[in-house]
Amino acid sequence: MTVRKPSGGHVGFFEGKKPAAILKHAVIDKYVSPFAGKTGLYSPGHRVAVIDGYAGEGRYDNGDEASPALLLRKARELQGVNRQLEGYFVESDPTSLMKLRQMVAAEGVDLPMQVFSGGIEDQLDNLLTLVKGIPTLVYLDPFGVMIPFRKTAQVFAQRPSQPPATELLINFSAVGLRRVAGLLTSIKDIPGRPATLARMDAACGGDWWQKVWLDHGDEKERAEEAVVVEYTRRLAADQRCSWCVTPVRNRARHKPLYYLVFLTRHRDGFTEFAEALSLGLGQWRKAVYDIENADTLFADEAAFQASEQALEDGWVNEIEGNLRRLLGEGKSFVISRRYSEVYGKAAGQARQTHLRKAWNRLHPEITKTSPKGKGKLLQLLIEPA
C-alpha cells in the first residue's frame, strides 16, 4: 500500500465474486460501520450518505452481494446504533438499471435508498447537492476509464469544509490503463487512437501520465502504479487529504486488475480505512486459497491458518522494530501522526491488534506507556522509558 498523509456501468454479473471483487466489497463492509458511527454522531438526524456511482445490478447472478445490496444490509445494521445510512445508486446500463431498481424495491423497503439513471458524470452535481451538509462517502467503480479529473475533484471542491466528512473511494482500472497506454508505443495505425488517449488525458487531468508511463520503459507494473499514485496525489493536492493506493489482484502472482484509491480529510478516516483494508485482505487471501485448492487433496485449513500466523508474526516484528527505532530518538509521539513510520512495510496489512502485540513487547523496558486497557492506540501518546 502506498500511503501519504496531509501536507459507465458494469457489463453484467454472470458469476459470483472473484477474489478482487471480494476484497473491495469486504473493505466497504468493514469501513462503512465505523465511518457512519463516527461521522454520524453529530450529523443532522444522524444521517450519513454513500454515493455508488457505478452501482450495477445490485447482486451477482448467484445471489452474492454487490455494493448496493451490501449497503442496504449495512443500513439495516446501522439502524440499531441510531444511524441513518442513505444510499444513492447510479447506473447507466438499462438492463442493469432495471435489475437494480427491482432489488432496491424488494430489499430496501423503508430504507432511504434512491436509484438514478444515467452516468455519474452527469448526476454528480445533483447528488452532491442532495447530500450537502451530511457526511458522505463517494464510491466510483468504473469498468474502464475514470470520469474526467475535473469532475472527480468536485467531490472535495464542492464540499470545502469539514465537517461534514467527505471521503472518496475509487477503483482505478489497471486493465483499462494498460490498454490505453499500449497506444503510446504501438506502431499500428489504430482507429480512434487520438480520442482514446484524449479520454485518458481527461481522466487524469492532463497528458502528464503519458510521460510517467514512458519513463518506466518496459517496467509496466511500476509504470501503472506510478500513474495511479500521481493521479491520487493530484486529487489530494490542496484538499488537506490523506490518501492510500493499494494494487488488487485475483491472485498474488497476477497483474493488478485495479488499484483501490482512498482519500480522506480526517486522520481517523485514514486509520479506520487501514483497519478495514487489513481485514479485507485477509478475506481476499482466504478466497484465493479456497479457489486454488478447491476439489484437490491439498486444501488444509490448518495450513492456511499457519500461513496467516506467519504473516502476522512478520507484521508484529516489523512494527516492533520500527517502534524501537522511533522511541530510540528519545521523544514521545502520537502513533497516528507517525503511522507510516510505525507500520512501515506492514502498512495496509497490519491492524491495531498487531500494534498492540508489538507494543506489549516493549513495555516497560523501552516505553513506559502501557497499551493494556487502552482502546484507541493510534491516538495514544507513546513515551520512551
Automatic annotation (TrEMBL):
Highest taxon listed in the record's lineage: Bacteria
The name this protein goes by in its record: Three-Cys-motif partner protein TcmP
Naturally occurring in which organism (per UniProt): Micromonospora craniellae
Origin organism lineage: Bacteria, Bacillati, Actinomycetota, Actinomycetes, Micromonosporales
